[in-house]
Q: What sequence folds into this?
């Protein structure tokens, strides 16, 4: 079933009776070539690219709950490629290019909206750093525009430009960044993978990973044992638990990150805007709610809810940057569990066990990475060589100290990234 | 009952490895974590209070604190 304007018209005129389920709810088979543990954005994207680019379709995606029920459905939907360090910059650049063709690739409306991401600066030093980062982005072929105060005012006149502590000096505008409908991204990848023959198996919790003579042979699940030549762990938020089933101890600590949304409002905020002097960012969803968030709660947590001190801090930062949001009523807040790595950058690599692959450590930047991460992991699984945009996402970089990507230079403490 | 904002959390309370040379033990100490979903033994710092380092036994799923004690020399970073 393909989606098109004509199809919508036809279904509208015939009582919408022709729509079908978007993917098959598959039963597990005894064996597969590849098992992907985790039916979230990254896992489903991996299945799509394995099938599409590499013709590997004897694949199962095992999901302990329902497809897209984890962090792909709990994030703040921001897409961007404005990283500064080699390793991250080319990876997110690649991912953004995939985002730009994603709806055509998947024949699915992911509501990709390149509304622009604006990072604000509040000091001369920060402006200099933005100029440098903007130049680096342009040098690799991406877009960046350094705006002065008046340039920022034209885009977002409602900011508190003369805030006594954090006056707005300017900003770095990344016009190709924006937002996408997070659930639709999971559904679009799921539909494409399923159509190409991948089995998407829900309510199937992995309880063990079988390893014989240093080589993975399959998994134990709540729905029985399944054999596989290759197994990929793509379960950010629960990476440590699943990796422990294979005897691995990962460089990851799990932390809760909160997000907030207001009641629906008329369009008032056209871009994604980030505060340069506190961890705060905001955008307006297509439904009208202001979606915003801030920093981690800082203590390790697996509870998908945060605590009030960080909620208060985020509100204070928001009021300092955009005082007008004080008139909006907060509708709800939630938390998601982040794989925090020691340098703030992810891992896409082979595990020290043959046939076992790791995709983890996305910190709080996993959503924008979804297509790039799926493409890179599929390439790694299919060829056993890293994708050219993800050569630095090695597991051993912490042990060797080579190729660390610590964007904020906060050192090896997991919760400070 | 103290306000959460008086504290900062360092992470898992782990014994520092022997020796000053870089080793697999130091890599493990700095980077790798058990990262349990459940009871965890952590170092917390009472920075906006008395300045003490504490070993807190806490559940990472329920956030319930089972015990808190002053950290000994073997626990502090």
A:
């Amino acid at each position: 079933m393909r989606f098109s304007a004509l199809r919508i018209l036809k279904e509208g005129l015939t009582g919408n009776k022709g729509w079908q389920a978007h993917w098959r709810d598959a039963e597990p088979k005894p064996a597969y070539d590849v098992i992907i543990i985790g039916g979230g954005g990254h896992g489903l994207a991996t299945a799509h690219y394995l099938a599409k680019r590499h013709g590997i379709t004897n694949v199962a995606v095992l999901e302990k709950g329902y497809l897209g029920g984890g962090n792909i459905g709990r994030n703040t939907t921001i897409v961007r490629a404005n990283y500064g360090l080699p390793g991250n910059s080319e990876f997110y650049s690649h991912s953004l290019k995939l985002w730009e063709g994603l709806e055509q690739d998947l024949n699915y409306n992911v509501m990709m909206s390149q509304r622009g991401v604006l990072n604000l600066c509040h000091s001369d030093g920060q402006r200099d750093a933005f100029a440098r980062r903007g130049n680096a982005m342009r040098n690799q072929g991406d877009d960046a525009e350094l705006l002065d105060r008046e340039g920022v005012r034209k885009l977002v006149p409602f900011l508190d430009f003369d805030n006594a502590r954090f006056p707005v000096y300017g900003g770095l505008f990344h016009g190709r960044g924006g937002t996408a409908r997070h659930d639709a991204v999971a559904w679009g990848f799921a539909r494409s993978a399923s159509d190409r023959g991948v089995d998407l198996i829900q309510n199937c919790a992995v309880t063990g990973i079988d390893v014989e003579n240093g080589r993975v042979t399959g998994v134990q699940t709540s729905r029985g044992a399944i054999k596989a030549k290759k197994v990929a762990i793509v379960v950010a938020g629960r990476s440590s638990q699943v990796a422990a089933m294979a005897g691995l101890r990962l460089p990851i600590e799990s932390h809760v990150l909160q997000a907030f949304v207001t009641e629906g409002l008329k369009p008032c905020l056209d871009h994604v805007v980030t505060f340069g002097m506190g961890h705060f960012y905001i955008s307006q969803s297509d439904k009208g709610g202001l979606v915003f968030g801030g920093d981690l709660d800082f203590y390790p947590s697996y509870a998908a809810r945060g605590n009030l001190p960080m909620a208060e801090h985020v509100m204070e930062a928001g009021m300092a940057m955009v005082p007008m949001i004080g008139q909006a009523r907060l509708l709800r807040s939630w938390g998601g569990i982040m794989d925090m790595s020691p340098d703030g950058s992810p891992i896409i690599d082979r595990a020290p066990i043959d046939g076992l692959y790791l995709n983890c450590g996305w910190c709080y930047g996993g959503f924008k990475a979804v297509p790039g991460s799926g493409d890179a992991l599929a390439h790694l699984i299919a060829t056993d060589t890293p994708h050219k945009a993800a050569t630095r996402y090695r597991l051993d970089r912490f042990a060797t100290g080579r190729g660390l990507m610590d964007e904020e230079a906060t050192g090896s403490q997991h919760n400070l990234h | 009952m103290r306000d959460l904002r008086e504290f900062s959390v360092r992470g898992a309370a782990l014994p520092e490895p022997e020796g000053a040379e870089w080793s697999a033990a130091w890599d493990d100490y700095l980077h790798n974590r058990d990262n349990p979903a459940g009871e965890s033994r952590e170092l917390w710092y009472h920075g906006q209070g008395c300045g003490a380092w504490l070993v807190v036994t806490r559940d990472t799923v329920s956030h319930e604190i089972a015990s808190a004690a002053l950290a000994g020399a073997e626990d502090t970073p």
User: Anything to note?
Assistant: The mean pLDDT of chain B is 92. Helices of chain B lie at 24-31. The CA atoms of residues 57 and 66 of chain B lie 5 Å apart.
